[in-house]
Amino acid sequence: MYETNYHRASSVQEAVKLISGAAEGKYLAGGMTLIATMKQRLAAPSDLVDLRHIAEMKGITVNGRSVRIGAATTHHDVASSAELEAVCPAICALAGHIGDPHVRHMGTIGGSIANNDPAADFPAAMLALDATIVTNSREIAAADFFTGLFETALNDDEIITAIAFEAPAKAAYRKFPNPASRYAMTGVFVVRRDNGDVRVAVTGAGSSGVFRHRDMEAALARNWSPDAVGNVSVDASDLMTDLHASAAYRANLIKVMTKRAVAAA
Amino acid sequence: MAKITMTVNGRQVSGTCDDRTLLVHFIRENLGLTGTHVGCDTSQCGACVIHMDGLSVKSCSILAVQAAGSSITTIEGLAKDGELHPVQAAFKAHHGLQCGFCTPGMVMTAVDMIARHGSGLDEATVRSELEGNICRCTGYHNIVKAILAAAAEMGGARQAAE
Amino acid sequence: MGVEGIGARVARKEDKRFLTGKGRYTDDMSVPGMKYAIFVRSPHAHAKIRSIDATAAKEMPGVIDVLDGRQLTADGIGNLICGWMIHSKDGSPMKMGAWRPLADQTVRYVGDAVAVVVADSVDEARDAAEAVAVDYELLPVVTDPVKAMADGQPQLHPEASNNLIFDWQLGDAAATDAAITAAAHVTEVKIFNNRLSPNPMEPRAALGIYDSGDDHYTCYTTSQNPHLARLVMSAFYNVAPENKLRVIAPDVGGGFGSKIYIYPEEIVCLWASKRTGVPVKWTCDRTEAFLTDAHGRDHISTVKMAFDSSNRITALKVDTIANLGAYMSLFSSCVPTYLYATLLSGQYDIPAIHANVRTVYTNTAPVDAYRGAGRPEATYLLERTMETAARELGISPAELRRINFIRTFPHQTPVIMNYDAGDYEASLNAAMAAADWNGFAARKAEAERRGMKRGIGMSCYIEACGLAPSSAVGSLGAGVGLWESAEVRVNAVGTIEVMTGSHSHGQGHETTFAQLVADRFGVPIDSVNIVHGDTDKVQMGMGTYGSRSGAVGMSAVVKALDKVEAKAKKIAAHLMEADESDIVIENGELKVAGTDKSVPWFQMALAAYTAHNLPSGMEPGLKEGAFYDPSNFTFPAGCYICEVEVDPDTGRTEIVQFVAADDFGNIINPMIVEGQVHGGLAQGIGQALLEGVHYDPESGQLLTASYMDYAMPRADDLPSFKVSTSNTPCPNNPLGVKGCGEAGAIGSPPALINAITDAIGNNTLTMPATPEKVWAAAHAAN
Asked: Min CA distance, C286 vs chain B (Å)?
């Protein structure tokens, strides 16, 4: 790791102030990706501003079916929230399978979303749930937020403070993990709302990161059943090929994971 | 350079380190507690697992400065008054270790796992909860057995106390 | 057997320190003034070094010095060597290219060490290593061994034209070809044995300490054989004479073969300590381990197995290409030859065998022994071929094996080995019973109803352990003898220290070796200390590999115990005025048989040291040493059965049952033996299902350089195992033991692949059987 300067913020305001004074500052949430990246010398922030001690960014509130999760809430806390489990168990289950228990004790929802790793789980949930990404300066629709591999709509110095969404009638997430890293080799989050609206968001497979599969959505809107997925064709041309899986195999996984998510929802 | 203070195994300790110093290196080099190990660079092997404020974490993926003010338990802090912790005793009884390198992380993980799941742990849950800990010697068979035995014993002990 | 004697399930003495964080591994060592080394490594797979400029690096904070290959060469540090001479079939010796500890002219794989930075901290050393400017002239790259042998390909070493190291053969080619021509059926198979990274959880490390006062060196290192390290560093690398070099392998966190070898880093740390005047410690990170730890396996073979009309094997013909990487590592030459082709008879009576092996240089990390070393490659080849033959011949895999089992011993195979004992059918029967083989059809039908494809597969392995009779291996080209040593030191108070040349890095020697003593003298194992891993404390020994610690290391202890027992009895007889032949040792006492006269063990020991009243002419003290050279290899064998369910939609394989039935000869501690089998199985299953080293063929970059891309078996990849043993004692060593360390890794890969191919109905599948491969193969079969 290159040299860096650490700062601990106790409020969002202080965090913004600290980073504005830094040459190449980075916010540090749980650090489960950032520290690893710095260890490999692939990131070299001059300053780190630690958000883990900002009380206003933590916690889960559920009002009716309106959910708000503070950005500094850990995966462990998302996974084990009884309130959240009551309205949207799919997101608890998703959080409960990110990384491993130790990573879940540190990693945060805000950090995961801001990083937008193409194989991360939360971006698929955000997109499918039509979540709002709340920052210190504005609210951004998930559809506008994830802009490419490790790219988001966040401006420099902008902090995600919370995410918010309306819990849907049905939702489920199924992922097929990479046998080595255990990140999603393909993960699919499906949502069905009472008005019949369906979302299918795919992570781990797309060559430009998380995306919605519109043909799947249309087929499932017509017929919300695992069988409806069978005849949808998945175009492999925009999917990733790497050491572990070809685009064609990922295309197959998208279908299989969608089918299984619908069955589980 | 940062001067940091934290509680480690019940004792307040202070030390000076670079801001870039990882918690695992602070524990090993500054505090001389070499039971916590480093087995990979990508936060996957779990040889470095400790407890921070009561939860298992990977000390190779946390800066020492991030842990300032926290309460840390390492493998050295588990046995009390020379008596092995029930998880340590179960690992010995069931041959849940061979070369010993992953063992501190495994034991700290098991203690955390049992604290969260209690005696209701089953084999599938133990195997799933061990996702962040790699062992190359045991094939996990006896580690799983040891954790299940410790969970049963600790659950039983808890019930007896109630 | 007693509660702590031979055969007892004794909990391990060494566990407490590991469980409480008190294990002492090389990276835990710290000495005053110690500084840290980081190696500058080649980012290219093949290049000439035009120049190295460390001027900027030397100016950086905390840097003590930056050293490179020119200085190393100037100081007379020698080349790394391969210690086993193999001759090609034309009689020419193997072509060993120069391997410099720090490359001074050419780099030949990504990770080849070029320079070393010594600095106050690891971070500062790493900062400076980035500032060392190495000017490379890139050369073309070859990573594929078949391609490397073709004309016009990049040449790695001038000695080895077409990168061919040797072209070696074993067996009778003419008889084999004749039998194949005359056969009723010939099964032909192409076999790939995937390249693996050993991955002990403790990365390699070295601490070099030069003491200018005594002109003496100390090296703490992660070694399976510290004496061998000292011998090689002294005799070949010219680091220091043996009497000026102490090598200590303290607690070592797993080896699996990868820590047998003497690598550039420990040599450089010792040399750099003298150069810089400070103790120098280097600790490998995991990516460096993937790049530079010797890899294992990596064979491509074609096989012909001939059968007569009654399904008896009449001949086996094997042609193998083994990729040895960029340099010949310490034992790299014997792995694909004498540890491989000599096991190609398996458990079967095969009248004619011929094996041809070509070994090849490529721009990849060196390849050497990894758990099993040659024997897994032989077993995988043979047992995949047997399975394929059974399917082609339309008979059950068990039946085909039964027809061909060797049933009388000793049995001379056509490929050197003389099997001393075994009962292969007993293991087969035990495994089939434990696996409920007969109930499989019903389980398959049930799985089918759930949409899952269920398959079952077996493998019958044999291996050769107890390496090895020194004169035999010497005649085959080994540069060392493979005996072992022991010294048993009885202290004046009766406690006992055993110095052994075997090294324990997970195997539990501190317990099992103590069990031998407890068994012999009836003393508690807590009064016995096993001392190993330090060349200053322990007499010359050969170390731990090839499941040799039981059959060879323990046999040396037994020989030393014999001598101690004989002297102890003499002393006791003298003290009790009895006849020496009437003395028996029981429960910590020396008794006169048939009387109530006895002397406690400690009193006899005290008498040996006070020397006030010893038999006339007897030397004081009680300390005896022995060297044991085995008369034959040992031959553990067994049968493994694997049952899987394949999800046809994703190709994911779940192991629903894994049964191991082994014959290890007599067993010292069943708990430890079971643990060895479990670990071996996990590594074999890892090879078959998950693991594989991949290089980019164009650039030679390692694509699997971390746990993000190299799939290690984790707890949820594996089932709990059903293990059992049915043992035939080994007739050739005093304990009747055979060895158990490698069996799991040897027998399991073919059982798993046989099971998956059975499930999906497609016999074409290579390791690792990743979900995508299995999915594609399952679909191709439909």
From this structure: 5
